[in-house]
Amino acid sequence: MDCEGKHISKIAEICSVLGNNTMETRVTLRAGRNNFGNFNATELEGCEHLNELNVHFNQISEFRKDTFINFTNLKVLDLSRNNLMVFKSGWSSEFMPLSITTLILNGCPVDTAAIRNYPKLSHLRKLQMLRIDGLRDNFDIGKHTNMLQELSLSGLYSYSHCSIPHISNWTFKQLVSVVKLNISACNVRSISAGAFEHLKHLQILDLSYNRKLGFRSMENISYGLQFTDIRSVYMSYIHTTFGLGTSLLKQDLCYIWNTSIEEMFIAGNRLMSFETNALILLPDSLTTMDVSDNGLVFLPYLLQTSCMKNVRKMFGALQHSSHYPSRYIVEDTDDGRQGCEERAFSSCPYMHEAFLMKIAANKRPCNYIQPNLRNISLETDLPKHLEFVDFHESNLIYKVQINFNITPHENALKHIDLSNNVFNIFTGEYGPFPNIEVINVSRCYMVQIGEKSLNYPSLKILRLDNNYLGDQLADSMRSNIFECLTSLKCLNLSSNGITILHRSTFAPLTNLTDLDLNCNNIGNLDIMLPSLSNLLHIDLHVNSLHALARNMRAGLELNARKLNSTFEIDLRNNSLDYSCENQDFLNWLYEHQSNMKTFELYVFRLSDGRIMGATWFQKEISHLEGTCRSYTLLIVLCCIGISSALATVVGGVIYRHRWKLRYLLFMSRKRFFGYRRLPDYTLIENYRFDAFISYAEDHFRFILDEVIPRLEAENVSLCLHQRDFLPGNAISDNIIHAIQSSRKTIVILSEAFLRSKWCMYEFNMARMESMYSREDQVCLVIVMLEPVPNNKMPLEMLRWVQENSYIEYTHEPDGNRMFWENIVLAIK
After folding, report:
1. Cβ atoms within 10 A of the Cβ of 26, count?
2. Mapped to the 3 state alphabet, what secondary structure does 728-787 carry?
3. d(CA 382, CA 241)
4. Confidence (pTM)
5. How far apart are CA 397 and CA 196, in angstroms?
6. Is 400 helix (H, G, I), strand (E, B) or coil?
7. Euclidean distance between CA atoms 55 and 30, whole angstroms
8. pLDDT tens-digit series, residues 177-236
9. What distance in Å separates the CA atoms of residue 390 and residue 293, rounded to the nearest whole number?
């Protein structure tokens, strides 16, 4: 429950809320900076189940003995920055629950005029961690505190204070179980040789920010650490920032050889060098070395880095850095001669040359260098297990133009950070680094990289940002610098003055997922290739892009679908054109807003020069299509529509009068190319047949058994297409000739008749003949052989049936006799 700095005047207000809730899990109450003042057990009712209580900076000056009487589960109690007189003689801690394992008391007032002692905490037999201000007296908090594992006397916090000028052999003799000891920023000036000898379980020692301690006490410190279980030593900033340069001598590191140190931090000590062969004394257990913020120079010790054979991490950034002059007063700097102080005589047995030669032989390929030897080989090996190297902003100024063979070839180096140095030309080849994964050479003023300089097939992350590679990448003949980076996943080329990029430059990067091109001057980007099948994230903010090429958009969408993922682009601070020519891209951008990083910050440039934001774009994009619509296309479509309408009307008229037109066409052809009537031709026509019978093949038996016998018995001559059509002539010609050669055309109407194309042709030609050639004589007779629904008749036939009489066939004897009589009558 976080109630810190909430201006709550009484802690009872919080405890009453907690008391109304059943808490079965671990409960922490942070109630610092509320100005509670003193409180008693009654006000804490409801908070008894707390596991952690933080009431720092609340103007508390005292506690009653029964204040925490019911707090049986309390493990952590923070009373720091209150007005408790914890260092006053006779101050009682009896109010604290016996269950406490962590106690924080630093930042409480110290009465310099009174006798000061550490508070007695004997009753806290479970206490494991204590944070309190440091006094110059021996550390004594009472008996029965042998469970204490972590002690912090640090004065590094702004509200804490610590002053222990000298650490003697008895200062921490009581801490038999301590594992972590923090005495940073405690104004320590000297340490006795046996100060830490009794701390058998000590694993972490922090002596940082004791500006007047210096390396002169390091021999004494390391002597006592031989008898501990030490793992980490923090000795950063134990030298004044503005003193003379320092050096670590063999006698400083002499007893270090006999320890189990794994991490060593000596940053910010104006360290310029190690004495030759001193690195041999570093223990084999060492895995992490921090020499950052020093002023290391080239001396033979650099050829002995392989002596740290198990080092995995090397921190060496900020070499030769300048510092603000205001720190000179803050650090209470002396006359600055600390770095030149001579060491006292040392009787350490491990610094003799014979012993050093023996150790070096056992640490192969560790090089032992003979004292005062001038002719030294510059060849050296990297520590075999070194994985991480950080020397950023270290004032390294070189033109890397030579090839350098790194040994051993099977080194373990994975991460190199050389950023903020000066390597303006990098055309040499350094390697091999078979396991390298990260290289950072950003802000190195690079203008040129060799075609094979980045020969690191295992590399996954490459930072080349804030250089000057734009001109090289714009030259297609010199831009193929990534050919060997087949495993690269992340490439940062931001702030390189890039204007043009070629597809071939990125073709080898088959595993590339992230590409950072921000803060360049790219106007057109079209680098997507099938080989970039894993590319999903592109940072293009602060460029000169007006749009994103269609090929890039399609490629990113394809990659996202194939990898079952999403792509992301950053197009902030570009010159995105809001115009009709850019409509395709703008619509795509609107559809993929969720794929745009911080889309709400995008801006769009209108044709009149105005700049509009993303909110305006979201509202107006729906109107862009109407604004950009082409009227030329509309006119063309209207013309096509009108032409289609006219064609439809003309087609409809032709279709409606199709039979008439076909009949007239046949008659015209006959008139001009066939038989022509003579001027004295008599009006009384002599027909060859009395009737042309039009029927469907389905009713051939009816014609054969009924029609022919009955009508020909009445001397009616019939024309039947199966009997009287002239072989070899067109069917249509035979039909029209039969109609014109017969006095009547008898249509035997049925549903089968309607399904026959030629039957309908015979009907329509007979209808046309009746309408246009027989004057007032009707030559078409309909015989309804069976009932035919109106909805199945074509419009022409339905109209004819409705406007003209027809004869219905029936099987009823009287009706049947009348039927045949009517047909004969109709024909004659």
Report:
1. 11
2. CCCHHHHHHHHHHCEEEEEEEECHHHHHCHHHHHHHHHHHHHHHHCCCCCCCEEEEECCC
3. 30
4. 0.73
5. 43
6. strand
7. 7
8. 999 999 999 999 999 999 999 999 999 999 999 999 999 899 999 999 999 999 999 999
9. 12
